[in-house]
Amino acid sequence: MPDVPWASIRGMGNFLRHEYDNVQADLIWTLIANGQLRALRDACAPYAAPRDA
Length: 53
Description:
This protein is mainly alpha-helical and 53 residues long. The chain has 3 helices and no strands. The longest helix has 13 residues, at 6-18.
């Protein structure tokens, strides 16, 4: 999936895990509310296990 910005996603994950004291919750909420994480969800959906399994 070359169109998914994996390096940016990995970088955000590292930031959230290691710099949690500096995380701006309102910025994270804005990303979620604006649907900017939808592309990641859609890219991962085919590989996710069914919820009822």
